Amino acid sequence: MVDLVSQLTHRKKGYTLEAPFYTDPEIFEADMDVIFGRHWIFVGVDVDVPEPGDVMVVKVHQTEVAIVRDDDGVIRAFHNVCRHRGARLVHDDKTTVGNLVCRYHSWVYDTTGALIHAEHMGQDFDKSCHGLKPVHCRSLEGLLFICLAENAPADFDEMERQIAPYLAPHNLRDAKIAYEHDLLEHGNWKLTIENNRECYHCGANHPELTVPLFAYGFGFDPKELDPAEREHAENYACMLNDNHRDWESQGLPSKEIDRLDDMVTSFRTERLPLAGAGESHTLNTERACKKLMGNLTNAKAGALHLWTQPNSWHHFMGDHAVVFSVLPIDAEHSILRTKWLVHKDAREGIDYDLQNLIGVWMATNQQDGDLVGYCQQGVRGKGYVPGPYSPHTEMLVEKCTNWYVGRMMAHLAQTRAVA
């Protein structure tokens, strides 16, 4: 049995985790209990269930959650389990219903989760005691989060207070999903997140993604720069400050907020400029969709990024948005779920070309998936020892790892105190 307390206590700051954190089934189950079972998890967008009666099912390890827009337009979440004898209730990833009907014995629930019909249960049976079991569900300006715990972390409100003004101009609730894609990654979920939290690897591995990106926006060692490179870095810093000032004067909050390692519900956001035409994550750096998001009038709105712990990252541009979630399967496999959003009135083939819209991130996701697989193969072997993070380009990976260790330690300390 893995001594999780010892493993966490002796973790060396500034280094990757010991191999069992990426390979051991017991630690994976602890991750599912503590991290994915007790924190806010990003699972989709409001427009996954755009109309009353629309349902989306999300699987978080062994737990399925049905997310439903009720008849009054309120988005709710329930365990996807009939309250009679535990049958799976909704069988499709997405569907539309009048009521939720169990196929086993035809118990019927309305879209608020209330049991409204159950035959042959006797006169003393109280339907009001057998509604669907609710799951905490919150929408952050159109981004959907759930929490499986009985008591969800209360600091979601603080994240919402700080992040909502950044997201509001993009108006995700007035968008539609143009495309979505699931990629099976042969790696532990933490390797996927670690890979995302840095761009140290980007230059050598992402020829499509780096076209619209500025190299100096993702960290560098100033001592390694020659005079020309130092001048370029200084110019980028000035441009970033100028862009932040200009965007904020237009009502687009832009300056960095970094709460990756000092909140339970942790996050980071910043709006960054794009190179070339400066409009979008496309190979020609021009907008992929003619119709802009929300009420934006300027395609050169940069790229607003948002990370939330433990399982998401997102990019919001003037013309479209891309949202990502990591859903663990087992200790060595994960699903990366990506959704591309455009304005709800944008027409495929007229306002946007789908392949142009999704091309950069379809390529980048596969490249990252391959890299995660290489890491998983490496950490399995006897030659693996924790390696050092770069203090100049991987400082945010360190913050994410610190958050993970801190949340696991806090739970174990609480468990020991109760015992």
UniProtKB/TrEMBL annotation:
Alphabetic keyword roster: 2Fe-2S, Iron, Iron-sulfur, Metal-binding, Oxidoreductase
SUPFAM superfamilies to which the protein is assigned, alphabetical: Bet v1-like, ISP domain
Cofactor names: Fe cation
Record-level Gene Ontology MF annotations: 2 iron, 2 sulfur cluster binding; iron ion binding; oxidoreductase activity
Pfam assignment, any one: Ring_hydroxyl_A
Chain ranges of the Rieske domain: 40-146
InterPro entries referenced in this protein's UniProt entry, alphabetically: Rieske_2Fe-2S, Rieske_2Fe-2S_sf, Ring_hydroxy_dOase_asu_C_dom, Rng_hydr_dOase-A
Protein name: Iron-sulfur cluster-binding protein, rieske family
Gene3D superfamilies: Naphthalene 1,2-dioxygenase Alpha Subunit, Chain A, domain 1, Rieske [2Fe-2S] iron-sulphur domain
